[in-house]
Amino acid sequence: EQLLEFMHQLPAFANMTMSVRRELCAVMVFAVVERAGTIVLNDGEELDSWSVILNGSVEVTYPDGRTEILCMGNSFGVSPTMEKEYMKGVMRTKVDDCQFVCIAQQDYCRILNQVEKNMQKVEEEGEIVMVKEHRELDRTGTRKGHIVIKVKAKEGSVLQKSHSVVDPTFIEDFLLTYRTFLSSPMEVGKKLLEWFNDPSLRDKVTRVVLLWVNNHFNDFEGDPAMTRFLEEFENNLEREKMGGHLRLLNIACAAKAKRRLITLTKPSREAPLPFILLGGSEKGFGIFVDSVDFGSKATEAGLKRGDQV
């Protein structure tokens, strides 16, 4: 696992999936060239492996006089094919103690070609919008199936299609990383509200929202659009009489609550309050904000539905 973690940082392995890196690590051989100026490969020499530089650098001198420097993390050698390939140019070490990992051509070809067979591409209107990889996640073979490894940024249905026992942490991973490929959290919020209307997806959508509120409440704080999303979602739970889920949502929001001081000034004594209150001593409850007028000074000041006064 330590070797796998180290290889993950090298450019040669950057575009490979974790399962590919794991299989390559299992068959790689470590090699060291102690002296600078040592010829590693001659021009026209048959290649029999794929190699990655771990330490040091090498220089390739081509027949036309051009030179190229390869450094730590760069790769050289065969392509993922069993056809014979030959070195172009002479490769020499530039420094002492050059270190490499080498993978035999047969192993390299087998692993990368097997991966291609395990890939499933999802197309819409002739465009690839998602790539899945078939994996076995335990030695018994009971947990196996396709896991999403690539997806088009706007392919929102990835949330709907991907969560399964094969990849049980997909939702958590998505909520942690979506900021890198979506411009606004409301892109996710709108999809969740849309899917909530489908009874077959309702429980799954509710689980996503609860995880989102519990783990990433900062996405909702200070964002009026996301606050309205939560209010609309809460109303949907009430409408569908999902009392248990509604209590869980309220508990999650209450756990993230913070004491705040908000100052509001009315234009006159007779002017109505830009929000509605519920509760009070006569009902045996505290006083809570039931709703806030959209676009009002109260909204701008950060007053939200559910705030206790």
UniProtKB/TrEMBL annotation:
GO terms for cellular component: apical plasma membrane; endocytic vesicle. Residues 12-112 form the Cyclic nucleotide-binding domain. PROSITE patterns: CNMP_BINDING_3, PDZ, RASGEF_NTER. Residues 261-309 form the PDZ domain. Keywords: Guanine-nucleotide releasing factor. InterPro entries: cNMP-bd_dom, cNMP-bd_dom_sf, PDZ, PDZ_sf, Ras-like_GEF, Ras-like_Gua-exchang_fac_N, Ras_GEF_dom_sf, RmlC-like_jellyroll. Pfam families: RasGEF_N. GO terms for molecular function: guanyl-nucleotide exchange factor activity. One of its GO terms (biological process) is Ras protein signal transduction. Residues 145-256 form the N-terminal Ras-GEF domain. This is RPGF2 factor. The gene is Rapgef2.
